[in-house]
Write a structure and sequence with these properties.
By secondary structure, the protein is mostly helical. The protein folds into 2 domains: about 20-100, no CATH class; about 110-285, no CATH class. It contains 12 helices and 6 strands. The longest helix has 25 residues, at about 155-180. The chain is elongated and about 80 Å long.
């Protein structure tokens, strides 16, 4: 019995230093750092990245172990809070679980409720947190981009994150708007209308010119996107889906058929391309426009010409 005990003790005394040398922490600091797994993992080498950032040691024993027990192969994209004092197996156990920060992204001009739905799904918000988000009055400033968001951030913190990105993107245009004597919020409203109306980058400056023409002439904008905003989700559950003509009679401050001028707020959060288009409209005499079935724009100077275009391209 004594010999067995001595043998076990010997194995432990020999094994522990061996185990620590190959699998132990690379440092003693308990301060956490964010280790990021990119949204697109196609060319991402997880182990190499962990080694390069000195979270795990470089050695063949560890490599052999990882090749044999690949339990982190399904590591999700996102951010993980790791420290240099963590043992290698603890690091891989952490990465095999839920990320501490998640990737959230969108590219189109979305209204705040749509952004809220994306965030709620990604961050696990309950209905109360989502309702709180929808009560914020920052429509137009939730810049469309890709974000790495901590899962423990609340709505106010996330809103600040998105608005900070908007301010960062808009800063280079702020002076230009001042020079043109255009309030930044006016430009943002117009940019949101362009974003919802344009079929792409090819026609956004033309639509900007037509919107400015209507505003300068004191005409009602009569933009269907404002009707979609007024309606919210349609009967099919779509935010920007088809609308009934009766929406043109709904008494809403966003109703650009009943009320002249711009809506009270932007109707979505545009990217910098549309903000630039609002500042630099194409010079045109057109006051009306439509898109045909191939998304090609056709504009006209008079309403009579517009009716002809409707008959020619839509009927």
């Amino acid at each position: 019995m004594k010999k067995i005990f001595l043998l076990i003790l010997f194995v432990i005394l020999i094994g522990l230093p061996f185990y620590w040398y190959f699998f132990g922490p690379v440092g003693s600091s308990k301060e956490t750092e964010i280790f990021i797994i990119p949204k697109n993992k196609t060319d991402f080498d997880l182990v190499k990245s962990l080694k390069d950032k000195k979270f795990i040691k470089k050695n063949k024993i560890l490599d052999y172990y990882l090749d044999t027990f690949v339990f982190f192969a399904d590591a999700k994209p996102g951010g993980y809070r790791l420290s240099k004092s963590m043992w290698a197996l603890d690091i891989f156990k952490k990465i095999s679980g839920k990320p501490d920060l998640v990737w959230v992204s969108w590219s189109s001009c979305l209204r705040k409720e749509q952004v809220g739905e994306i965030l709620a799904e990604a961050l696990g918000w309950d209905a109360q947190e989502l309702d709180k988000w929808n009560s914020f009055n920052f429509e137009g400033q939730y810049y469309p981009d890709t974000y790495l968001v901590p899962i423990d951030e609340n709505g106010e913190q996330v809103a600040k994150r998105l608005i900070d990105r908007f301010n960062e993107k808009f800063s280079s245009y702020a002076e230009k708007y001042i020079t043109e004597n255009i309030r930044w919020v006016t430009g943002l409203k117009i940019a949101s209308l362009i974003a919802r109306e344009a079929a792409g980058s090819a026609d956004m400056h033309l639509i900007s010119g037509i919107i400015w023409n209507r505003l300068n002439k004191g005409m009602a904008l009569q933009i269907d996107a404002t009707m979609q905003y007024t309606l919210g989700k349609n009967s099919e559950g779509k935010w920007w889906g088809s609308i009934d003509l009766k929406e043109q009679k709904k008494d809403s401050p966003y109703n650009s058929y009943l009320h002249k001028g711009l809506p009270p707020t932007p109707i979505c959060s545009p990217n910098i391309d549309y903000i630039e288009a609002a500042l630099n409209p194409e010079e045109t005499d057109c006051l009306f426009y439509l898109h045909d079935h191939l998304k090609q724009i056709h504009c006209s100077v008079t309403y009579e010409e517009h009716l002809q275009n409707i008959k020619k391209y839509l009927d």
